[in-house]
Please model this.
Amino acid sequence: MDYSDVLAAAGRIDGHVLRTPVLEISAGVFFKLELLQHSGSFKVRGAFNRILSAGELPPSGVIAASGGNHGLAVAYAARSLGVRAEIFVPEVTSPVKVAGLAALGAHVTQTGAIYSEAAEAAAKRAAETGALAVHAYDQAEVVAGQGTTGLEIVEQTGGVDTVVVAVGGGGFAAGITLGTSGGVPGGTPGGAQGRAPGAVHEAGPRIVAVEPERIPTLHEALRAGEPVPVEVGGVAADALGATRLGAIPFEILSSPRVRSVLVSDEAIIEARRTLWARHRVAAEPAGATAYAALLAGAYTPAPGERVAVVLCGSNTDPATLTTA
Model:
């Protein structure tokens, strides 16, 4: 996979997804508000690209396993395209997301304690029905679709030195790594014009990949030299709860451009509260995870460094914004 796959995805999904806004919250620090995307997260980009790439679909439609956000995206894309959707979610999926799936007309099965168990059930069902499987993070079409967020970041900011993004199974961070590796008119490929302070830029900006300490899929994969299983728990488990990094994301995220950092559940909760109190941005825990890295000091930008923080999900109960 490379940058051309992301460009092709951008053309394919044009008109189906939103070009989400960028907000400069301080000099050189930007929020990419992907939580304002259709279905409340970036996931519709990959869902549309996968479905539209498939050509004629079977009568059984599409099928996906999800902690919630991917399922919502697949259900949204399927409804938009007039396709049947069947979604499997684990027991940890929030009631807000389960209700959202039903509202989108998806056929929902809640099974298994964690995402991987729901994924096994979905794979078995897909084999029975012949439905098109839309994987949450480990399909080339899905990764390329998510990468269109990176294209927008480069275009909307004029280039940054660093993109900070949350990681679950790795598809979003991998896509953004590819999508920020192209050129910026008048500048250096994918990054700030003239390149700024002290960063490692082989072909595009540094990617700071942020994970909860209790779900370190990328961190442990990089340590082991291959994707390995991890235990899943904590406040962001419904959205970032992959038990193993995807094979495609691992290949892309093994780049020297990528730095892996971990944040505590307490830091994620505080970032979520701060987003609401200071910026009136309503994020779910996964959506606040990237920002937690800056607030907690897991990643500290250099003076003058241009940084884009991707806020990736908003599927949450608003009543919890100040309490959990």
Remarks:
- The two ends are 39 Å apart (CA to CA).
- The chain has two domains: 3-42+139-320, 44-133.
